[in-house]
Write a structure and sequence with these properties.
Strand order of the largest sheet: 1-2
Distance between the termini: 88 Å
Structural class: mainly alpha
Strand content: under 5%
Helix content: over 70%
Order of helices and strands: HHHHHEE
């Protein structure tokens, strides 16, 4: 069977075409997510391991690329789901769960990333610029001498 005959056979069965489009849409979404995770790992590594301001900026840039990947990929996936809903015979309930799952994925990724960055900032895992570092050193010296009690200055 030639390639043209195979193509015509697929076109005669719209249900099969819908399955192909749906599979391509899901694989595309997974690809966007994978690229998001790779950029996230690179960004977090640059932010935590980089000592210079340039490394911090590069890490932030990688996190922005990760955000773009996830938002764009989720937007395309949701759009394709809505477009193919009638063609594929997807019920409104199924569509709702697919859209909610994709959206929840975005929200959970952002939540985990923000919690991790907040944890690093709280524990001092993120390098600070020299001015902030000097202020921290001054505050720690004052604490040692008993001049600062908790969060209040005496």
């Amino acid at each position: 069977m030639s390639l043209q005959q195979q193509y015509e056979k697929v076109l005669r069965h719209p249900r099969r075409m819908t399955e192909i489009y749906a599979t391509a849409g899901c694989l595309s979404f997974l690809s966007w997510c994978r690229n998001c995770y790779i950029s996230t790992v690179a960004g977090v590594a640059m932010m935590t391991e980089g000592a210079s301001t340039f490394a911090q900026s590069a890490g932030l840039g990688a996190l922005m690329v990760a955000t773009m990947n996830l938002v764009w990929g989720t937007g395309c996936h949701v759009t394709n789901l809505v477009r193919l809903r009638n063609v594929s015979g997807m019920s409104s309930v199924t569509l709702f769960f697919h859209v909610a799952g994709s959206s929840l994925h975005c929200v959970l990724w952002a939540f985990v990333l923000l919690c991790y960055i907040g944890f690093l900032d709280e524990t001092g895992g993120l390098p600070r610029d020299d001015k902030t570092k000097q202020q921290v050193d001054v505050d720690s010296e004052k604490r040692k001498r008993g001049l600062i009690d908790g969060s209040r200055t005496v």
